[in-house]
Amino acid sequence: MTTIKDVAKHAGVSVATVSRYLNKKGYISEEAKKNIETSIKQLNYRPNQVARSLSTKRMQTIGLIVPDIMNPFFPEIARAIEDTALKEGYTVILCNSDEQAHKERQYIETLKQKYIAGFIIATNQLEREYYAGLNVPLVLLDRITDGKAPSVSSHNKNGAVLGTDYLVSCGVKEIACISGPQNVVPAYERTQGFLKAVEGLNIKTHVVESPFHFKEAEKTAFDLLSAHPGIDGIFAGSDVIAIGVQRAIHRLGLSVPDDIQIVGYDGISLGEMVTPSLTTVDQNIYQLGETAVKMLLKIIEGQELDKEHVMIAPSLIVRDSTKEKSK
Amino acid sequence: MTTIKDVAKHAGVSVATVSRYLNKKGYISEEAKKNIETSIKQLNYRPNQVARSLSTKRMQTIGLIVPDIMNPFFPEIARAIEDTALKEGYTVILCNSDEQAHKERQYIETLKQKYIAGFIIATNQLEREYYAGLNVPLVLLDRITDGKAPSVSSHNKNGAVLGTDYLVSCGVKEIACISGPQNVVPAYERTQGFLKAVEGLNIKTHVVESPFHFKEAEKTAFDLLSAHPGIDGIFAGSDVIAIGVQRAIHRLGLSVPDDIQIVGYDGISLGEMVTPSLTTVDQNIYQLGETAVKMLLKIIEGQELDKEHVMIAPSLIVRDSTKEKSK
DNA sequence: GTCGATTGTGTAACCGATTACACACAATAT
DNA sequence: ATATTGTGTGTAATCGGTTACACAATCGAC
Questions:
Q1: Strand C nearby residues, CB < 7 A
Q2: Which residue, among B174, B261, B245, has the nearest Cα to B212 in the 3D structure?
Q3: pTM: predicted TM-score of the whole model, two decimal places
């Protein structure tokens, strides 16, 4: 590996000059600049990030903490984040907290020892105070929004209204919302959106809660639908929940969308793969991730944020788990 | 942040002694050891990984390169790898190559600058020579097996025989293998297993190729089944392909497993989520990832490997996309 | 009693960058 | 003529560890 010293010697200048060139700081003559450039090319020099980090106390690495990598929403957002970060010269360490606070804490501690530049956090395990005491740039993604740390998320309430309105427009007579855990902020907001949308309508409604897991959602839906056979429309708190619901309906010998119509939330690609494919509220996952990275990099570089809390507008994707009334 | 100097001062010894204690190298008196231990605790000292890496030229970080993070197989294996690595004190950088050689190369170069300890590579974009010239510990996962680099993979041929035999035992009369791309080694091996299993049987067989993507697989299956309506059994080269096949069958107005039975390959959790759930050959994904990490760490630590090429035995998971003859 | 091996510790160089500081020189202002 | 400012560059300290080397002390062996 060639070092900055090799380059300096080869270009006939001091290491300080080379370093100034690399970081575009201070004055450099045209001549020195040219020499350094050719030396770097000839020697195929790449600065050692570790040595650089030891001085600057900052690695070109960001940590992404997700609660469950097996939930397909998170690989999709991870991909967007990674893609954007790589373009900006950062690499991403993906950390799976398994929804366990101690794992999350362990990751954060470990990565601080590696001079991580910042975190994007899509978890709500640890307390806000903990993050506040961290003293590391961070952006919250899709989870907590308490005003203290910058955040980016889908406009969950609007999205839920969008999805519920559509379901109603498809002519359902008795509607259920199978939401995610209400202590998870987006799940709560989506439920609020649902309630707002059905408010004043002359439609029988139910709200039940389920974890963001396929199997539990299936069970919850199975029980609900067995108890209330009149339900003909379901707004699910996430696409994974919606898919669990589909299976429950299938087990009950009913059909989607003929007997029961479903609208999901997320817009993960899995929604296209299931049969019937899923009508859903699309969070615009790529944009969500991209925005989070850009915000984080601004914070890292000490720039002002235009907005502390960004909400990405969701949109509706109509597929085969609903059927329009006119048809 | 407390440094090794602080600890040394507090414990009344030199930094060298503290360092020796930390690395369990050389002689240390019981007394010094005790002092250092209490000092570390009192000061809440954690060694700075970056500084350490600058000396040792090695980070406690491993790079995992996958071709497509949106393919659910890879998050599952990533989770296993991350889990195992974290237990051993390593963090994982997950890199998504998008099946593009230049992205893969860019990751490798970037990470070498960060003194990455080693790579686990689940891609076959770059040439073997490139890896050979890398001079970094690496383990190939589920892809190339050319004898030059250590590898771990499912015993694909056996697995394919297992799956095909089962399909045959379910009474299918005309069977198709919709394989992954034949230039991808495991896909090729699975096809070989399929051919071996049907050899000599008096069953009409077809073999067609499809990318490991849901939509293309759906199209391939649709065309194949339209052309050969007699097909009543399909062995898919992966679970994602199998799910595409399911959709094609559904579009054709046929039913799984009554009209056509399907066996997939991988054992991803998605297989449980679709309707009907998927009978499949389970690669034992967690074990695959765990083994890869353990092998890599041995190489990093300069130990001898028991076996250069590990093959994990697959097993069959029977679900609802097949039906046993007796029933 | 001297020798060599074993045990224990400290000093200082080193890993490869960044950067404060000093210094030199030219151009401009007073 | 002198002071000030703007350019351009090099020396050396620093980041926080690791480790080669030197040196002491202790111990059993001959």
A1: A 1, 3-5, 15-16, 18-20, 22-23, 25, 47-48, 51-52, 54-56; B 12-17, 20, 26-32, 51, 54-55, 57
A2: B245
A3: 0.90
